[in-house]
Amino acid sequence: MKKFYVTTAIDYVNSEPHIGHAYQKIIADVLARWHKNKGEDVFFLTGTDEHGQKVANSAKEKGKSPKAFVDGLAPKFEKAWNLLDVGFDRFIRTTDKDHEEKVKEFVDLVNKKGDIYKGEYKGLYCEGCEAYITEKDLVDGKCKFHPNKEVKELSEEAYFFRLSKYEKKLLELYDKHPEYILPSFRRKEIINRVKEGLRDLNMTRLKESMDWGIDFPLDDKNVIYVWFEALLNYITGIGWPDDKKFKKFWPADVELLGIDNGWFHCVIWPAMLMSLGIKPAKTILINGFLTFNGQKISKSLGNSISPNELVKKYGADTIRYYVCRNFVFGQDGDFSEKELVSRYNNELADKLGNLVSRVAGLIERNGVERCEVKLLKKLKEKEIDKKMESFEFDKALNEIFAFIDVCNEYVQNKKPWETKDKKILYELKESILKISELLWPFIPSSAEKIKKQFSAKKIVKGEVLFRKI
Ligand SMILES: [Zn+2]
After folding, report:
1. Ligand 1 centroid vs 144 CA: distance in angstroms?
2. Most buried by CB count within 10 Å: which residue of 20, 113, 244, 289?
3. CA 18 to ligand 1 centroid distance, Å
4. Which of 25, 54, 99, 129 is catalytic?
5. For residues 428 and 38, what is the distance between their CA atoms, to the nearest angstrom?
6. pTM of model > 0.90
7. Is 423 among the domain residues?
8. What is the pLDDT of residues 268-293, one digit of tens each?
């Protein structure tokens, strides 16, 4: 059986989940469900990144221990994804015991390969990124992702991972596998930066300056740098090295992440794997950033950006549909509630909802008679598959809705309310069942209702699926 393994960035738990986090999880879930629909064996991993300076600082501000602090926040992420029908197979926390143990095992093995050495690190550090950054990353003296934070100068004894050793191998990987980094405009950015040369990675922090991390197995005065261990979740989460899940699902088919994590995932992560001779993921898929009603997503927007509040207001399916249909995947976009409502009314309610309720009512009164379903020939299924394979979710939905239009016109032209033609109604019933199958990855709960309604022995009109807002 074909397998499909999809992962997301694990969210840094220094604040509550917001719609930007949710967008990526929805996309991962759509992919997971799409491949389940194809009969594949699917594993979907998501979770939270819980160590490091930022978490330690936020915990301190709240007067909590880091562990108590993350224990309070991690379940909020899990709950938010549950409310959005994001059906992950494991929610990994980097404070999980199995993760911590396997990370140490990984570090030991990398050391045995001769890829770790002791040295001194001097450099600029951005606490927002939890990363050393170079002069080149600065815009007006500040980190480009964190213009409100001061960049600090740090100097400490540290252990290094020989990242520079993998420069050539990485460039070969990008060259031989253009699908490794998508969308392709992101690929070029990464390649250009790698070509400028790689510096070895400081992979530890001295406990005396920051001790909220996993113990560094080679020297107990240190903890492992948060990024180095967090990246490993993609393999520890499926039981690296000898669990049968790891053997079956690795390498990941798609690793989803935001561009702020691009460097770590496209450069450091594959180099870490290369050190142990483990294959990298097949595709690193980079999503764009969202703004919310035209504003940058930030704490000051308060509850309005909470996925839970949005689900309460519009329902999970509406949000899922909107983000998949409205944005060109990979580009930045604006989550606009006005646009969401308009797509909901015009597309889900008027097109899909109308078709479903009209046909169900006609079948309730007239019944169906089995026949060849010519109508389905107008569905461009191969085209839809292609769009999904190339992560063009908006275009895939466009094709599905083009077929919904075809079905609505079919009702209009064939006038089954006059002709009482049971064969026409059978064709429409089968077409609607197919539509529900294709829409299931995007709007699972509504699609399941439609499927149930149209698979029943006695089809009845039932409730309105999408009440207009
Ligand atoms: Zn930063």
Report:
1. 6
2. 20
3. 19
4. 129
5. 23
6. yes
7. yes
8. 999 999 999 999 999 999 999 999 99
Give catalytic status of residue 143 as yes or no. yes
pLDDT of residue 413: 98
Q: Residue 125 Cα, ligand 1 centroid: separation in angstroms? A: 8
Helix segments in 415-443, DSSP class H? 416-419, 422-439
Percentage of the residues of the chain whose pLDDT score is greater than 90 = 90
Could you tell me where the DSSP H helices lie in 344-420? 354-366, 381-389, 393-414, 416-419
Q: What is the pLDDT of residue 122?
A: 85
In order of 81, 198, 283, 413, 439, the CA distances from 382 in angstroms are 30, 42, 22, 26, 15
Distance 224 CA to ligand 1 centre (A): 19
- DSSP states of 332-345 as a string? -EEE-HHHHHHHII
What CATH number does the domain containing 427 carry?
1.10.730.10
The conformation of residue 214, written as its DSSP 8-state character, comes to P
- Specify if 348 maps to a domain: yes
What's the total number of domains in the chain? 1
Is 407 a member of any domain? yes
Tell me if residue 18 is catalytic.
yes
Amino acid 64: pLDDT: 97
Could you tell me the CA-to-CA distances from 380 to 185, 244, 355, 404 in Å, in that order? 29, 38, 19, 12
Of 25, 54, 126, 324, the active-site residue reads 126
Residues paired with 143 in a beta bridge: 138
Q: Domain residues for 442?
A: 337-469
The pLDDT, as a whole number, for residue 137 is 81
Judge whether 421 lies within some domain: yes
Whether 299 is a known active-site residue: answer: yes
The active-site residue out of 18, 102, 395, 429 is 18
